[in-house]
Amino acid sequence: MQRQTISYLSQVVIGPATVGGIQAGAFKIGDTAGTIDNIIQCKLYRPGSVGFVSKSGGMSNELYNTIARVTDGIYEGIAIGGDVFPGSTLSDHVLRFNNIPQVKMVVVLGELGGQDEYSLVEALKQGKINKPVVAWVSGTCATLFKSEVQFGHAGAKSGGEMESAQAKNQALRDAGAVVPTSYEAFEGAIKDTFEKLVEAGKTTPVKEVSPPQIPEDLSTAIKSGKVRAPTHIISTISDDRGEEPCYAGVPMSSIVEQGLGVGDVISLLWFKRSLPRYCTRFIEICVMLCADHGPCVSGAHNSIVTARAGKDLVSCLVSGLLTIGPRFGGAIDDAARYFKDAYDKGLTPYEFVESMKKKGIRVPGIGHRIKRGDNRDKRVELLQLYARENFPSVKYMEYAVQVETYTLSKANNLVLNVDGAIGSLFLDLLAGSGMFTKPEIDEIVEIGYLNGLFVLARSIGLIGHTFDQKRLKQPLYRHPWEDVLYTK
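The line above is the sequence of ATP citrate synthase; the predicted structure tokens follow.
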């Protein structure tokens, strides 16, 4: 089969075992040249006059530094890697450097093993390279060992006299390259060659420029007080940066030592202040009374079905919580909002209900599927009793009761439900405590704080139903077909 020659235009393959390459002041690929500090130290922020190619990636950084000390720096540096068959050879790059006008001299670092350096020797002998080449082949110490030694790279293994570092160095020297007597003399050879080019007028050292300022590490600058990093999240309710978490500035240990309860924690995290005990106790009562309402309501039903599908706790809880809305537990905020607006405007229960009717809006907090005027919701009665005995004022609750009296004259199931009771009583809590301004109360209702109580409370029951189904090892739920009306 005839071998095809593929043209890669101006593209060059280096590696595969390479740390990369750099064109000073332009770009770098791979990890070569190291950190920004090292790039600045080795003058790699701007192009110099030296083309450099090496088998060793680790020694590349060393030679970048060496070349920067004794010349005006490198124009381009390449590490081809130490594989036996690299993607491109030393001579490939030297020949390429020979055709780059900005490159005035070439530095080559080879190593024992293989015959790659001999292709460079041939190119020198044939006159293909007209720029000074300073070269060194490392591995001369191999002759000190009695047996053959494998150095770090796959290709760094002498396979005979010709592949020894000494033979390669001599061949390069005979072909016209500048080859020192040892690696220690390599730096001096590079310096002498560059200075001769300058003296002969064949090159003018690149003018030094001020390197770009290295940005200071952000964490260091913040610690020194030089900068203030913009924040992505703002938190005003808790702080965990000290020895212990603080809720609204109150240390966790203090909360426990004072015997504060869940209601107190909610008051700190939600309202950012310590509410009076009668307020936090009311919050706890709301949570207890709303924790569960049996397995048949939509939220519990969803959690049960999800649990029986084998899902995890969080999935079961979320499936139940997603049903909370205006028709199920999500009416507390709306009840508070409408009752407050009507009371503050001085509307009579008749005016309020009829105006809502004209708007086509059901009064939130009024109505129940089961409870009636002669079968009141025990939870509502408990909340009203507690408020009358402990709250300084219950004006909003009394207004809600007056609205209930009017709606019951329309239908026996239009009773004040637990959403309406909590919504109106929370208005009394906020207004009666004297700890909230009118704008703050409006904001609390608008944001959705009160529905948060129902979400928190009902989570307890939904988790309970999830555990209950898993404990009972209930199978996958499928709704009975006889409970579905199939129509066309």
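Note on the example: The chain has three domains: 1-200, 238-290, 298-472. The mean pLDDT is 89.
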